[in-house]
């Protein structure tokens, strides 16, 4: 058995398709299929049922997933521990964050880092999904959720406020919402339920009952673009939306507060290049 075939197996197990696994693993689809076939031959077991909707684990596949994940965790732990004692200010550091945080201050941190340590290469992953640090999908993450995993360490960066905004064109067309009726009769732009489930009921503490959701998005910059375009009212970060002359604040006394954290795996805390990136991010927070 080739141990690396277990990595391919896990990719297919998690993605449910050869194409999805290949994209995650950075290999081509034919290679993923060939490596799975080799693993099934080595184990003398059929690990997946091939169905029109994707790859469904067989009982043998379900049984194989747990030891394969243990192998993956051991490999990641070895890599983290070796990286954790690496004192070189060079190499690659993967950073995960959202597009609004990247634009707001993370890009400034990367610019300052590159000026001081040009041999550190940052790979930036911009996504609203929570990136797994334990599976080495990133080395550092800047996120709004404090981690509960005991293997992760976090630092509180700042508390920020979001409020309700609409474009001047929207307000000319639809009028300013009234305090006594709230958002009833107005159009909204909100996050997908997978990003901010609370917005299905409230935005910045204001009930959405009686309002109409015109658009759902999955990134902060798309939320701001939709509000600027006059599609509807949106909950936006005050520190960004207040700087945009096209947007008008609605109900200034109604807000939602959130925290920003820098998160990393405890094993990487002593890595010189990871520490340098973390310090740059901390220094760049306005």
Task: Summarize this structure as a short list of keywords or feature phrases.
286 residues, alpha/beta, 9-stranded mixed sheet, two-stranded antiparallel ribbon, 9 helices, 13 strands, globular
Descriptive account of the structure:
The structure is a single chain. 40% of the residues lie in helices and 27% in strands. The model has no long low-confidence stretch (mean pLDDT 89). The strands form three sheets. Strands 3, 4, 5, 6, 7, 10, 11, 12 and 13 form a nine-stranded mixed β-sheet that branches. It has a two-stranded antiparallel ribbon with strand order 1-2. Strands 8-9 form a two-stranded antiparallel sheet. The radius of gyration is 23 Å and the shape is globular. Helix 1 (3-15) packs across helix 2 (18-25), helix 1 (3-15) packs across helix 3 and helix 5 (99-116) crosses helix 9. The protein is built from nine helices and 13 strands. The protein has helices spanning 3-15, 18-25, 29-43, 59-84, 99-116, 168-174, 220-228, 238-241, 272-284; strands at residues 48-51, 54-57, 91-97, 120-126, 140-143, 152-167, 187-191, 202-203, 206-207, 212-217, 233-237, 247-250, 256-265. By secondary structure, the protein is α/β, with parallel strands linked by helices.
